């Protein structure tokens, strides 16, 4: 009888786990949407006629199925930013890396399990600047629901998606950026949940508003879906407690300002303990560039309105940091530490593969087809390899089928002692279960171009952010590594002219893109790929 007595509780546990897991299914139809923004009528491309697109909510352990139908005139793919894609690398959605794009009038079904992750992630188009309007939140709840949070359960959760807006077709913006050789023009406005707010010359501009109750705690799920800019975000009269970043829990961090790079997410608790009224939430650019370059100086606004307060009541405006306030930005980025619960993976202490990856922008001669280029064109590289997207097949297909001539496995572990950049589709092969440590070093290759913060995003993995600093990395700085409770991230803002050290275990076979999440830099070549 003893084996039977043991079997019954085991079967009950398995059935309970199976009952908790679900299949969450969506259909995204990507097509043209007529919209009025900044007093202009436009046609933009969205998922399901929604800017931002639909919010996806799943529970850890669920299987997500998204049927993507491309009714737009552009080839595209959808990337599930931050999802590990364990044994489902074909579904990562990295254009020409893990799949060829979905052609106009075509469709593709993404299906993958979400395991070992909780928090705020997001999804977006991974093709040209189309992600400026094709994006949405991906929220992963704990299996225990709100009782599974390592902080008091909030009264309500509010997604806040920060973005950019152009008054032109964004595909045309990208094409012009290539023809001039200088990258895309700056955006015409910033947005909160797809709306620019009322701090612009267009009277009656759409503005996001959320009603709250006095004396409650709200969880703001903040996503920087902007294409090319870091952002400061504040709510007048209120403060935050940061509890997670990039879908990894942090020790509680009190602040009155959120600093967030493209691709990153921040979960922050906000108590509604202010005098009942109307309060602006606002976002504007954090400009980290070391040379003067024009940037979008608009301010996106929304409103937090307390229940019972009339719509005509005046709203208080927060005092945002100056655009170039590197001290405030650095304090925020460097103050976060991981929660490091006993159940969380520990930092690997033995490193199998060390790398130093330098990156930056430089000037190059205009190409013959860059018909609007004058003087020079921008180029970017990692370890002096300017990444070229493959033409014949996606990298994962070439890897799986052994298609020759698509890529080379000679991405260097360290920056080569040569001048100039090599245009190549080069990948770095690593062994399964190897612990990889990468020093990410920002370089100023051109004094005329300077440098800036670069949000470096790694597909397929989270990584431990062990340390970061200004200037050049020196091996003696290993003594500053946080091996106890480092941030766990999928996107790190490497300081302008500075460095960051990341460490991860290569336990997820596939082809995994690592690139700058400033989309202006991606076609310039600021990317590489891990093959494992």
UniProtKB/TrEMBL annotation:
* InterPro entries in UniProt: Cu-oxidase-like_N, Cu-oxidase_2nd, Cu-oxidase_C, Cu-oxidase_fam, Cu_oxidase_Cu_BS, Cupredoxin, CuRO_1_LCC, CuRO_2_LCC
Question: Source organism's superkingdom?
Answer: Eukaryota
According to UniProt, the reaction catalysed is: 4 hydroquinone + O2 = 4 benzosemiquinone + 2 H2O
This entry carries the following GO cellular component terms, namely: apoplast
Indicate where this protein resides in the cell. Secreted, Extracellular space, Apoplast
- Residues forming the Plastocyanin-like domain are 33-144, 156-308, 420-530
Q: Which residues form a coiled coil?
A: none
Which Pfam families does the protein's record reference? Cu-oxidase, Cu-oxidase_2, Cu-oxidase_3
Which cofactor does this sequence's record say it needs?
Cu cation
Write the record's keywords in alphabetical order, separated by commas.
Apoplast, Copper, Lignin degradation, Metal-binding, Oxidoreductase, Repeat, Secreted, Signal
Q: What is its main location?
A: secreted
Note accompanying the cofactor annotation: Binds 4 Cu cations per monomer.
PROSITE patterns with a match to the protein in the record: MULTICOPPER_OXIDASE2
Question: What CDD domains does its record include?
Answer: CuRO_1_LCC_plant (cd13849), CuRO_2_LCC_plant (cd13875)
Q: Name one GO molecular function term.
A: hydroquinone:oxygen oxidoreductase activity
Q: What is its EC number?
A: 1.10.3.2
Hey, what's the signal peptide range on this chain?
1-21
One GO term under biological process is:
lignin catabolic process
User: Per its database record, what is this protein's job?
Assistant: Lignin degradation and detoxification of lignin-derived products.
UniProt cross-references to NCBIfam families, sorted A to Z: laccase (TIGR03389)
In the record, the note on similarity to other proteins reads:
Belongs to the multicopper oxidase family.
Question: What is this protein's record name?
Answer: Laccase
